[in-house]
Amino acid sequence: QVQLVESGGGSVQSGGSLTLSCAASNIRIRYRWLDTTWFRRAPGKEREAVASIDGDGISSVAESMQGRFTVSRNNDKNTVYLQMNNLKPEDTAMYYCAAKISGAQDYNYWGQGTQVTVSS
Predict the structure, then answer these.
(1) Percent of the chain having pLDDT more than 90?
(2) Rounded to whole angstroms, how far apart are CA atoms 37 and 49?
(3) What is the pLDDT of residues 14-48, one digit of tens each?
(4) Which DSSP category does 26 fall into?
(5) What sign results for the dihedral spanned by CA atoms 43, 47, 50, 56?
């Protein structure tokens, strides 16, 4: 059974940093056919994609978060990371890690989420 487990969330003040981790089991994040994406959902808002990294290691970050967020992975640890700097109160949300087969529309696997709270 594939599992994605997020960690690293917490409460920080505006301008602070956090690094979220998404540890995968029973699947290898380095598979060329696997895309991994960080999503977030803030209270009262729709879920939005934050950053992705594909099977070739090519990453992308949502335009509104470019320059502050970075996505990376460690194949040996089978873990994907989301480095978040200069956090703002509007970044407060539940952050989720998800994975899908490249080219597919739907995400097959989801983690349980980790809460990030940024205070002003």
Answers:
(1) 91
(2) 7
(3) 999 999 999 999 999 888 889 999 999 999 999 99
(4) S
(5) positive
